[in-house]
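Input chain follows. Return structure tokens only.
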Amino acid sequence: MKTALPAPPRAAAPTAVATIAHPDKQWLSRAVFAVFLVFCLTPWASPPVALALGLVLAQTVGNPFPSFTKTYTAKLLQYSVIGLGFGMNAYSAVQAGRQGILFTVCSIFGTLLLGYVAGRWLKLGRHLTHLISCGTAICGGSAIAAVGPVVRAKDEEMSVALATVFVLNALALFLFPAVGHAFNLSQQQFGLWCAIAIHDTSSVVGAAAAYGKEALDIATTVKLARALWIIPVALGTALAFRQKDVKVKIPWFIVGFIGAMLLNTYVLATHYVGPWLVQAARLGLTVTLFFIGAGLSLNAIKSVGAKPFGLGVLLWLVISSVSLYVILHT
């Protein structure tokens, strides 16, 4: 019987080199992450700048805390949205909600129908098509996260759908304010357009905040009212896909936002702490967008694929252009 010989010493050399180099790169990525995060907490940072810093981090030294940013992105966004409620008036919010209700209903069902037709034309899977369509129609990642378990989507389908809407969200955050100024949109018009045409709540609030306070109030209210459609759409999805024993997650942070807004409107004492809470919420939103950008690595973008990304772009362009035309001519 032959005895196995140990590996020659020189075969271990590459591993030793990699082990030495890895901590250096990890230290650098952590240092850059810390510097960017601290900057996002300063008055010089804004949501678009924070997103850009996150993208720079992801494409260069990489995100050293992917699990941390993934876990806390949604939580930080939800708490930030609740905090923004302390700077809003209930009467103004109701008025803004009335203006956006018809837009919301027509755009949601129109987007879902167009997505179904375009998905069949592109020969995409039914689950992936529905996830991207729901993300575009309602509220991006939140809608995908709610509908995915209902259709029992695979992890790969969820990842591709989320990556698609996150990439388009990043583009929207930079493009929409520029388009709004080019068409000379009012604060009210831009806030409504943001809420209808941008997927995720984080990018809606970020783009609207860059445009003005009135735009921010309108965009936040209309977008959160739109997000409530997660519930009926998820229930309808269960029926359409003939799924049984499914659980639909209720977006409780919207209830928190409404509660904060009511407190700010009717309880005088909240006026003393309201401005501080709103400021903290805006900082939280800025950090949220930095986390989102840090999660958009080149590999994540490449994983989308041409057809799913094409479907996302098609739906986004249609809902953006049609809603902008209607807003300009009504």
